[in-house]
Amino acid sequence: MHDNHRIPPLIMEETTFYVDTGKGFNLSAGLQLKPNAPSEGIVILCHGILNTRFSKTILCVIERIPYHTLSFDFQGNGLSGGTTTYGNYYEEVENIRCIITYVRENLNRKVLCICGHSKGAVDVLLYASKYNDVPLIVNLSARYDHTEAPSNRFKPEQLEELQKKGSFVWIKYSDREYIIRDDDLKERNNLDTSVVRNIDKQKVKVLTIHGSKDEVCSVKDAYIYDKLIGPEPYHKLMIVQDADHRFGNINHQKIMAGAITSWLDENKSWVFNEIGYV
């Protein structure tokens, strides 16, 4: 699940830096400035589980949309400090909060949009439901029901170890071990994503893009989010036919990134004229 990729140097200027969370660790981030960007606002990008800001899906968005972007590693991932757990969605929401505060106070820029993929997409929806202070939200392939997971995610011997010891090492990545504990599973299973109903329709609009053949998070979840957040113009739903969870096919990547760009273009005037720029 972990992708090690570098951002091609030809398409943008990138500045890397660390953001102090105030909790004893820093978050690693990169600001990608685009020539002739259609807005001075920043699109913040949030990666999925067992990944980094260099995930293929995140890089696809960075490379294919003309807007300024900022990508970062959640705590316990990539070059960021701290630790991560299987159910720490609200910790990651606060990571997003730290990044947004940094953009506003240290970079003196405005946040136009937060875009997340997979677990990161759930994070941005939870962020929007809690803070309602970023006008545009993009959900790429978010799960709704967290009691469900791919049947092959954990090996039988790992689940047996969980029963005997209360924890197991799911996977080793970089120089870290990803440990699954009983409490982590309970926290994740109890995650209430119906709180997306709390997203303020006067302040926030949401775009959901989901592959029809998503093998990790069922496409049915996209329709649930549509019912909870919608209808248009508050929520726009786009199903990419035959696309998988990561939009791995290059044509699906083009469709996905093109849809994000078009939606941002369409809603820039609403951000400026209707609600004022946050």
From TrEMBL:
Transmembrane segments: none annotated. It comes from the Eukaryota. Keywords: Hydrolase. Residues 39-144 form the Serine aminopeptidase S33 domain. It holds the Pfam family Peptidase_S9. GO terms for molecular function: serine-type peptidase activity. Residues 187-267 form the Peptidase S9 prolyl oligopeptidase catalytic domain. GO terms for biological process: proteolysis. This is Alpha/Beta hydrolase protein. It comes from Rhizophagus irregularis (strain DAOM 181602 / DAOM 197198 / MUCL 43194) (Arbuscular mycorrhizal fungus).
